[in-house]
Description:
two-stranded antiparallel ribbon, 3% strand, elongated, 150 residues, single chain
Amino acid sequence: MVIxxxxxxxxxxxxxxxxxxxxxxxxxxxxxxxxxxxxxxxGVGDILIGRGATAAxxxxxxxxxxxxxxxxxxxxxxxxxxxxxxxxxxxxHRLRRGFTIVDPVLSNTSKLYEGKELAEVIRMMIEIAAxxxxxxxxxxxxxxxxxxxx
Length: 150
C-alpha cells in the first residue's frame, strides 16, 4: 500500500477515489492492466532484425530472397507488437462503474505476439545468422592462449 500526502496527482491518473464498491472489479481487471505490453519487445525485434541483416551481409547474402522474406516476416511481427501496444491504449474499454482499462482483446493479442511470435523472430534471426554463429570462436577458443582468435 502506498499512502500519498500532499502530492499532486493528475485526475486522469486516479483509478479509484472513495469508490470502495468498485475495488473488486478493479482487482479482477488489474490482471489485464498489470501485464500491459509496452512495445519494448518491438524494439527488441528491431535489434534482432538488424543483427540478422548484418549477419546476412557478413555472409555475403544480403540479396537472397528467402533471407529477405525472413527479414520481412520479422518486421511484420515486430510492427504488430508495437502497433498493438499503441492501439490497446488508444482504444480503452469502459467498465460499468465508469472507469476505463486498456482494451483486453488487444492487450492479450499483443501479449501473444510478444510471447509466441517474438520467439519466431529469434528463430529466424538464428537461421539467417547460422553460418556466422557456427564459425564464431567459442569461449574455449578465446581462453586458449595459443588460439589465433585472441
